[in-house]
Amino acid sequence: MPYDYSSLTKSSDGISNTWREIYKASQPLSWNLLSILEQTILLPHDFYDIIAAYFLLPSALCRLVPYLFLHGQSGSGKSTVAKIASYLHNVTINSSSDTFAGIRNSLNKRRKGWAEVVDPDDPNKTWAKAVELNTCMVWDDISSQTFTTQPNLYNMLKFGTDRSTSKIVLSSTDTGVNLEFECFCPKIFSSITPLHLDDRFRELKRRLIVIPCSRVEELSDERKAELNILDDSWQGRLLDLSAYDWKGFSKEFDQFWDLPMAEMFLATRSILAKSVKGLSSQQRAISLDLLATGITSGVWEDENVAIERIKAYWKWFKKETEKNAGLGGLLQDYIKQEETNAKNGGRPLQIHTHELRNRVDNWVTQGWLFEKPKSAQVKEMMLDLGMRLQQGIWRKN
Q1: 8 Å CB contact between 42 and 234
Q2: What number of other Cβ atoms are within 10 A of residue 244's Cβ?
Q3: Among 88-102, 166-180, 260-274, 369-383, which stretch is predicted with the lowest mean pLDDT?
Q4: Fewest C-beta in 10 Å: which of 71, 83, 143, 201?
Q5: What average pLDDT does the segment 124-145 reach?
Q6: CA atoms of 377 and 328, how far apart (whole Å)
Q7: Which of 18-27, 163-172, 201-210 has the highest mean pLDDT?
């Protein structure tokens, strides 16, 4: 005999068993989003504000956005963070098995909407105007194979950060007519694979905000102390997202970005475009909209706090990724290339210091590196890669 179990979890007052049970209506959306994130995952680094600001990006107002990459092993909470984004934007979480065509069609549909505007000739009349809606894309469990087997997906990520260059032209074998696809929008994706360290996807690395996720047992004792948790009591700190009905949560986001808030966002970004200093050109470009969002929404109390937090993030990023993989990987590839050239030319491997210096400068100009590394750092890595320096020439040990 079938039973209707829905009545057992249905809210009788519209609050219990729903997101409203953990949402303080007296506080702004940004405060609540931060609270939910802090109660949902225990991060190895205090990047909750970065995540919250990113989730609140108003895509229809943005010009250039990075992507949020959640990296960690199974059970580290990255998929849980992605769920919060899907609830806030009312979007389905894509998987690595989804096709490019399906993802493209879904984004096109979500981006289009209609706004009621007043007739300038008759204030008593209104008409429907086609407008772009705020949205985002969420992927869970992407791997490097996803990009190699579906190059269109990788191209969507390559070109989808900058609104001015986000139009992809696709040829249709069915109709013979080229199709245009606007792939610009914030994108959140997770993976156990360190895609940000994979040299095959260097163009992607330049566009990423990387958020590391860890299992609780992998957190350092210092971080556990900061989070005020114990090994045997942390479970009671975390929310079970599946215990709540999240229907209607996305309306909080939709209603937040009304015209006055949109005007404030644009004004804030205009000010930041003239005042932000201390970031590389690449960092600055992909951080402006994020900064404007965090300030406007109240994630950060003012411009100074926002800029310091973004600077702190990029400092961490440089230390943890560029030093260990970016520069080292580029040098390793360069040495291999020079070894091949030397072998083909029947000569020993020799790399003059001025040639290496010029190559590093090119990597910075092309965006492979966010800023020029110190000579001592380059020298240390060259020595680690089995090279020795004699009279201004690098040779193999």
Answers
A1: yes
A2: 21
A3: 166-180
A4: 143
A5: 89
A6: 10
A7: 18-27
Three-class SS state of 275: helix
Is the pLDDT reported for residue 12 higher than 70? no
The more confidently predicted of residues 156 and 186 is 186
Q: Classify each residue of 34-60 as buried b or exposed e, where b means 16 or more C-beta atoms within 10 Å of its C-beta.
A: bbbbbebbbbbbebbbbbbbbbbbbbb
The answer to whether 371 and 282 are in contact (CB under 8 A) is no
Task: Please state the CATH superfamily assignment of the domain spanning residues 24-231+246-300 in this structure.
Answer: P-loop containing nucleotide triphosphate hydrolases (3.40.50.300)
Tell me how far apart the alpha carbons of residues 187 and 229 are, in angstroms, rounded to a whole number: 31
- Is the per-residue pLDDT at 368 higher than 80? no
Mean pLDDT of the chain: 88
Q: Is pLDDT above 60 for 174?
A: no
* Inter-residue contact 201 to 325 (CB < 8 Å): no
CB contact at 8 A, 119 and 132:
no
Angle, alpha carbons 277-283-137 (nearest 5°):
135
Q: Coil, strand, or helix at residue 305?
A: helix
C-alpha to C-alpha distance for 98 and 152, rounded to whole angstroms: 12
CA angle at 257 for the pair 290 and 163, rounded to the nearest 5°: 50
326, 194 Cβ separation under 8 angstroms:
no
Q: Which amino acid belongs to residue 383?
A: L
CA–CA dist 58, 50 (Å, integer): 15
Question: What H or E segment, with its residue span, contains residue 169?
Answer: strand 167-171
Choose among 46, 48, 321, 98: nearest CA to 194: 321
| Residue 388, CB-side half-sphere exposure with 13 Å CA sphere | 3
Structure tokens at 277: 């200093």
Do the Cβ atoms of 85 and 94 come closer than 8 Å? Answer: no
> Is the pTM value of this prediction over 0.85?
no
The structure tokens listed for 339 are 């070894």
